[in-house]
Design a protein that fits this description.
about 40% helix; alpha/beta; globular
Length: about 170
């Protein structure tokens, strides 16, 4: 329990982060212009089968954001609203890519705000990251393409090694 007060300018940035990309990093940095602290929260997305475990994803995000004390990285096995309630946080940050994300994000916001008094702040994704997704990164890596323009440089090797392990398991 972190015991943040309602006035604290703290936001949760929830997602699968499987793995974290430069698009996510951009959203975190822009959110830090509005909020004093951003909690990057790795959650379970019922609709996706992740490549990285929750712990691996937390470790990668910590490595990609190390040195910035305004960024907290955690995982949670449950509803986003339950994490928000337990920690007394009312702000959620999300990135929104052109058109494709809108319906899904709108639905998530409506459901979350029905369950708890929460505000979602959307950052429109930068032009250069508009096409980018973790799924695309995994697909490119799986087929041996260059993912270095899409993931933080200090986790590139970790992502490639995990993908190699996965390929050995399935091939
Ligand atoms: O990066 P993603 O996969 O688009 O993030 C979706 C995520 C993980 C934020 C969403 O699936 C989520 O909040 N999962 C936790 C469970 C939950 O609260 N579900 C209800 C939201 S409608």
């Amino acid at each position: 329990m972190k015991d943040f007060s309602y006035q604290d300018r703290i936001a949760v940035y929830p997602g699968s982060f499987d793995p974290i990309t430069l698009g996510h990093i951009d959203i975190i940095n822009r959110a830090l212009k509005l909020f004093d602290k951003v909690i990057v929260l790795v959650l379970f997305n019922y609709r996706k089968k992740p490549l990285f475990s929750l712990d691996e994803r937390v470790r990668l995000i910590k490595k990609a954001t190390e040195g910035n004390e305004k960024i907290i990285v955690e995982s949670f096995k449950g509803l986003l609203v339950d994490y928000l309630k337990q920690n007394n946080i009312r702000f959620v940050v999300k990135g929104m890519r052109a058109i494709s994300d809108f319906e899904y994000e709108f639905q998530q916001h409506l459901v979350n705000s029905k369950l708890f008094d929460v505000e979602t702040v959307f950052f429109m994704t930068k032009f250069e990251y508009n096409f980018l997704s973790s799924s695309l990164v995994k697909e490119i890596a799986y087929f041996g393409g260059d993912i270095s323009p899409f993931v933080p440089s200090n986790i590139l090797q970790d992502v490639l090694e995990r993908m190699d392990k996965f390929k050995m398991e399935v091939d």
